Amino acid sequence: MLKRVGGDNQRVFYLAQKHFVYQEFWRFAGFVFANFKQITLCNTKFLRIKRNIAAAGSEVLAHKFKKTLLVASAEVSDALADCQAFAMRKEARLLQVSAAQKAFENSRETMRYAQTSYLEVLTAQNSYLEAQLQESADFLEFQQCLINLYKAVCYE
Fold it and tell me: What crossing angle do the helices spanning 118-154 and 36-112 adopt, rounded to 10°?
């Protein structure tokens, strides 16, 4: 024979709890169905706000992308301007070096015939060597311009 544990009071309490749970469920279900239109409007508003936030985020990303493009194009433009300035200086520097070399050779020839002093030959040679030094410095500067151009175009 089975013994009943608890008694009728526990059974009544259990049924009351069960009834209360069912009652709360139906109250909540009634609230949901009664306010379905308002809930869908809230959901629609939520989706609209979410869409607006996503659009604002994409606008921010587009703005950042445009800014990055502007900065990158400015860097490329500056590097190209530097290379173009070097190309203009290179021709002038070659003329300066050839003129200094010619002046040095002429002063050396005139010293051979004792028409100029050794000091003038040294001055002309110094000018020629300075022109060559400037030419080599310009070459290194041009190499740096190319490196800067490479970095601006395809360096990450």
Answer: 160
Alpha-carbon span 83 to 70, nearest angstrom: 20
Distances (CA, A) of 22 to 10, 12, 15, 33, 56: 18, 15, 10, 16, 45
Give the CATH class of 37-154. mainly alpha
CB-based contacts of 121, cutoff 8 Å, min separation 6: 104, 107, 108, 111
Each of the 156 residues of the chain gets a pLDDT tens digit; together they read 444 455 555 555 555 556 555 666 666 666 655 555 555 555 666 667 777 777 777 777 778 888 887 888 888 888 888 888 888 888 888 999 999 999 999 898 888 887 878 888 899 999 999 999 999 998 888 888 888 888 888 865
